[in-house]
Design a protein that fits this description.
The longest helix is centred in the N-terminal third of the chain and has 14 residues. By secondary structure, the chain is of the alpha+beta class. It is built from four helices and seven strands.
Length: 157
């Protein structure tokens, strides 16, 4: 187990072939991180850190894009909206999965992250899904509302 910024990352390994110009090439062994957060509900910072780490570890099929920032308030800058894209690299139809729409929706962002992480761990599933579609996971569409409710819930504890 690896502890980083109070997050417990459980490690396993993945071997995966990447489709490039009509042939498969072997990808070196890499680490799959499974989100295990300090609390049952992670903070926005923990979600952001996990998304960045995942995209870095799986850059051969996962990309993290910042769609923009929320408006914010006069005192602080808006929070980024992230889009985790799983793709085999060529144009296909797109499936978009959005979570964290409502401020009180604290479980959905974690569920979406666990979904794409489980797909990564189970290479048979990944090998069946990636050739068909590109998958866009937007785990948190309302980060300011999420963080507000997260802080409120943690203050009550």
């Amino acid at each position: 187990m690896l502890y980083y910024n109070s997050i417990d990352y459980t490690m396993s390994f993945l071997m995966f072939g990447k489709y490039t110009e009509g042939k498969y090439i072997r990808i070196p062994e890499n680490q799959t991180t499974v989100p295990r957060f300090r609390n049952l509900v992670p903070s926005f910072g923990e979600i952001e850190g996990y998304l960045q780490k995942f995209a870095k570890n799986y850059s051969y099929f996962a990309s993290l894009y910042e769609l923009g920032k929320t408006k914010g308030n006069g005192k602080k800058e808006g929070l980024p909206l992230y889009n985790m894209v799983l793709s085999s690299g060529y144009a296909k139809p797109i499936i978009v999965i959005i979570g964290g729409i409502y401020a009180s929706d604290l479980a959905c962002p974690l569920a979406l992250m666990e979904c794409f992480t489980e797909w990564t761990i189970n290479t048979k599933v990944l090998a069946q899904l990636l050739p068909l579609y590109d998958y866009h996971f937007i785990p948190l569409i309302n980060p300011e509302g999420y963080e507000f409710v997260y802080q409120k819930v943690n203050m009550a504890v």
